[in-house]
Specification:
single chain, alpha/beta, Rossmann fold, Dehydroquinate synthase-like, alpha domain, 2 domains, six-stranded parallel beta sheet, three-stranded mixed beta sheet, 9 strands, about 10% strand
């Protein structure tokens, strides 16, 4: 059994790096952010003020039915086929449509999947290079299409970022593209749009936002400026997630989670995530488990694994979430499961015979694991999967 949080000591792990107030950091934000209930209709006002006549909305089937709430002018086409875990064929089908309708404006209207491939479509619509030529940092060219992001869940924070991930079906790896040219011209965060999110999805996406904040806060690249957003985001999830799960119509709770998600997005660009996301990715790429749920399942395990490196930050996280005393992993597990999240890989269709392959895949994601606060081996990743089974 793991040691209780109060007794965790850093003696068995490398000490956390000291905060450096002078370490260089670049912070980017969408050119304009509109936040608040009822703001969704501003998308149409903004588009009209920019002379937009042809818009392509990137969405899933559910949100496609409420595109009219955006109030967009001119010709509005809708790509309503976004997958929960977008792959390369899904993206290329979207890009072909964006070119066919000669989109002047692309709107990501949905969760992180819709917003991610909306970013990619915006930079690919005029670019003849292949997707693989854009993978990595700063390879995308300037775009002619405008980009607006409107999240309908509170989890990914993708509306605020410059990074997008797509699964390559040949390798089952998530490939990341990062570019300032994928930063939204306008982000609209309207908490009312999240009122229809079911309790289980509310819980999972809220824990995804939490994971963004926690992993950035504890990363080797942690920075005091980003810590401010991370700590506040953790506290907002701790205060409002249970309320929103219990009552989807709780407007204050929905607004609090929308803000937590935005803060999590602010954490992703300058610092990014670590082992929690790396270990969760194979759940999506190999088994189609939604990103938020995958992160929720893994969250208690990586939180407890990293705690010995910086027990002060671990205690701060636990306090902001209102976790019970005692074993940290068990407390975090109960906190997640208590909101209806299925926390067992076996119940999500994952068998023990696939765990080794998942561990191989996760251990190869060095862009995240190299910044985890504590070194983690392939065997330790496998152990986390086995514990979560």
């Amino acid at each position: 059994m793991a040691a209780p949080l109060s007794s965790i000591a850093a003696s068995n792990a490398a000490p956390a790096a000291a905060l450096s107030w002078s370490r260089p950091l670049t912070i980017t934000r969408p050119s304009r952010i509109e936040f608040g209930a009822g703001k969704v209709g501003f998308a149409g006002e903004w588009a009209a003020s920019h002379g937009v006549a042809r818009t392509l909305v990137v969405s899933d089937a559910f949100n496609a039915a409420r595109v009219d709430r955006l109030g967009l002018p001119g010709e509005v086409s809708v790509f309503a086929e976004v997958k929960p875990e977008p792959d390369l064929p899904n993206l290329l089908k979207l890009v072909a449509m964006a070119r066919a309708v000669r989109a002047q404006l692309i709107v990501g209207f949905g969760g992180g999947s819709a917003m991610d491939i909306a970013k990619l479509a915006a930079v690919m619509v005029d670019d003849t290079r292949s997707f693989h030529e854009l993978v990595g940092p700063n390879k995308a060219a300037p775009r002619s299409a405008l980009l607006v992001q409107v999240p309908t869940t509170a989890g990914t924070g993708s509306e605020a970022g410059t990074r997008a991930l797509v699964t390559d079906p040949e390798t089952l790896n998530k490939l990341a593209v990062e570019s300032l040219h994928m930063l939204a011209d306008l982000a609209i965060i309207d908490p009312d749009l999240t009122m229809t999110v079911p309790p289980a999805v509310t819980a999972a996406t809220g824990i995804d936002a939490l994971a963004h904040c926690v992993e950035a806060y504890t990363s080797r690249r942690a920075h005091p400026i980003i810590d401010m957003y991370a700590r506040e985001g953790i506290g907002l999830v701790g205060k409002f997630l249970r309320r929103a799960v219990a009552n989807g119509g709780d407007s204050e709770a929905r607004a609090g989670l929308a803000l937590a998600s935005l803060y999590g997005g602010f954490c992703l660009g300058p610092v990014n995530t670590t082992a929690g996301h790396a270990i969760s990715y194979p759940l999506g790429t190999r088994h189609g488990i939604a990103h938020g749920l995958a992160n929720a399942v893994i969250f208690p395990h990586t939180l407890a694994f990293n705690a010995p490196v910086d027990p002060i930050k671990a205690a701060d996280i636990a306090s902001r979430l209102g976790l019970e005393g005692g074993d940290l992993k068990a407390s975090a597990y109960r906190w997640c499961a208590g909101m209806g999240v299925e926390m067992r890989l076996g119940q999500l269709g994952i068998g023990e015979d696939d765990l080794a392959g998942m561990a191989d895949e996760a251990f190869a994601i060095r862009r995240l694991l190299d910044f985890n606060p504590r070194e983690i081996s392939r065997e330790e990743i496998l152990g986390i999967y086995q514990a979560a089974l």
